[in-house]
Backbone:
């Protein structure tokens, strides 16, 4: 660094003050002032607890998250808010400094929390106030460009997803000519392992739970296993086959995936395996039926439960579905949907990588700024 940066403890630069609870009765959705929780604005109120621009640091829950405030605000008791000597430090410089420190890594405990004394003990380097302000101007300009690029990538990502969902919904909006309408139970066998959870082991046969079933695909994590010796005694309700459709009955309701392995696997509770009569319904076509918004809406409408929405098997079996009577026509549609799904996933991968790269670029720029690389010669 060509200009002097003073090495200090963060506790000598700023103070983290505790937020304060605010009862629901004193909150108003159209209130004049924001109410901040650990990860940002949570509500509004007509009262304020602090009347200067500050920085919210998540204390509990989303511990270590950083947010700039409005001039008057209410920080809840799951937060800290920053106080400092205004004539020595630039607020935005401190915001960028805290962002660079990644305080989330200090979070500990079942409900993650950070201890402010640990924050205070961090060594930091601080330049003069004019230099702080010059660096802030550079970072503001760079981050505005990055945020604009992220917004475009996120929009493109959403557009890619919506294109597939729109095409899928259009197919299943209503039965077409030559389509059959029936209840799920008419041509689909249920293999239901709800209400049972096998004892888990560190290795063995893969255990598939509702956590593995995402909307449209089966993910490997969390990886859980059971003793292979229990397979025959456990899988007495039916043996799944390659291509069978997996359906979650709650937590969450109506996630759908396809079993794409011929290996022996064991199923836990909250999953029903759909085995269609393949002379009537193509297995992959059934997956797309259940993924389509019109059919999902029917299923979700029949769901019950105030906290966790679920559906009874008896109601699920009565849901009406529809499909071309010709299995050949079903396969033709599947081929189109598979191609569009593949292209959608390809685009998603591109945009998700771009978003990740932009986040890394932000970190790199922050690192360079606080290494003194933006200091004038």
Residues:
């Amino acid at each position: 660094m060509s200009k002097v940066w003073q090495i200090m403890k963060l506790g000598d630069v700023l103070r983290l003050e505790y937020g304060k609870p605010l009862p629901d009765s004193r909150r108003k959705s159209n209130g004049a002032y924001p109410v901040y929780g650990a990860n940002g604005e949570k509500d509004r109120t007509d009262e304020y607890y602090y009347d200067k621009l500050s920085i919210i640091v998540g204390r509990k829950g989303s511990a270590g998250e950083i947010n700039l405030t409005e001039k008057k605000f209410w920080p809840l008791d799951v937060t800290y808010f920053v106080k400092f000597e205004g004539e020595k430090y630039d607020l935005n410089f401190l915001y960028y400094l805290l962002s660079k420190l990644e305080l989330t890594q200090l979070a500990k405990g079942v409900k993650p929390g950070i201890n402010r004394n640990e924050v205070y003990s961090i060594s930091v380097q601080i330049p003069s106030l004019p230099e702080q302000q010059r660096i802030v101007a550079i970072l503001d300009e760079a981050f505005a460009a990055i945020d604009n690029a992220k917004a475009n990538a996120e929009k493109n990502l959403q557009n890619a997803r919506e294109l597939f969902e729109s095409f899928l919904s259009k197919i299943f909006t209503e039965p077409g000519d030559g389509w059959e309408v029936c209840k799920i139970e008419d041509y689909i066998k249920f293999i239901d392992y709800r209400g049972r959870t096998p004892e888990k082991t560190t290795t063995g046969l893969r255990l598939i739970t509702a956590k593995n079933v995402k909307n449209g695909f089966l993910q490997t994590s969390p990886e859980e296993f059971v003793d292979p010796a229990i397979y025959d005694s456990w899988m007495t309700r039916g043996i799944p086959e390659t291509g069978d459709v997996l359906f979650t009955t709650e937590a969450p309701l109506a996630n759908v995936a396809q079993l794409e392995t011929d290996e022996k696997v064991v199923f836990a509770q909250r999953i029903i395996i759909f085995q269609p009569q393949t002379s009537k319904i193509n297995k992959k076509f059934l997956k797309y039926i259940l993924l389509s918004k019109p059919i999902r809406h029917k299923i979700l409408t029949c769901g019950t439960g105030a906290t966790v929405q679920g559906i009874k098997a008896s109601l699920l079996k009565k849901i009406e579905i529809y499909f071309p009577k010709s299995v050949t026509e079903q396969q033709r549609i599947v081929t189109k949907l598979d191609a569009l799904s593949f292209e959608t996933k390809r685009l998603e991968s591109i945009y998700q990588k771009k978003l990740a790269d932009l986040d890394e670029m932000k970190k790199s720029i922050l690192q360079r700024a606080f290494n003194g690389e933006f200091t004038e010669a």
User: Anything to note?
Assistant: The chain has ten helices and 18 strands. Residues 6-126 form a domain with the Adenine-n6-DNA-methyltransferase TaqI; Chain A, domain 2 fold (CATH 3.90.220.20). The CA atoms of residues 165 and 292 lie 7 Å apart. The longest strand covers residues 40-45.
